[in-house]
Amino acid sequence: MTRVLSNVAAGLLILTVLTAMPAQAVPIQFEIVAQNNTGDVVLNNAIPDGEVVNFSFVIDVPAGNPASVGTFDAVNGSVTWNNGGSQSFVPTAAGKGGGSAFPNYVELFLNGSPTVIGTTAINGFFFKVEIAENPFSTTEELSDLLLAGTVLDMGLNRELIGVEGGTNELDLISASISPGVLSDVPEPTAIVLLAFGLAGIGATKRYRETYR
Fold it and tell me: CA 74, 75, 76, 80: dihedral to nearest 10 degrees?
């Protein structure tokens, strides 16, 4: 019985460790400053003309992904500006666009719940990163190409509530791309398994002490 309990506890702990190990990813930090000089009436309702927009976010790019693959593990950060007070857009997902017509850059998207200010909604942002290879023919990893890339321009999706939306480009002031920090939180299932594993070890110890 003691051996069975020990084996169960050990198995659960091993499973916990394997489950809690994060998927391999390369975090990439983007710091971008841009300005709204569009003169667009709809956009100016949310981001005033001449207002500076600050982007600070990390995209987790799966390790081993070729440049032709546009899936990302996660995105964390925010886009902030002022409009009579602090405003922000919080991205909850990131993606990659562009086709074969764009042989030397990739277009990245930040998506999330719309930020609504007055009658204008900001639905998401996009930006182009110039890379050294054709993303559709290179064997280089997307993470390596992005880290060595250069942000070319910025844009956003906006709409007047109830009216079909459009896009606007912002004037790029500065941009940097650097390695980021990956924050991993154990999955709930891993925590449960860890609890069972520890409980199993405790039960084994009590059993041994009782039946010595």
Answer: -160
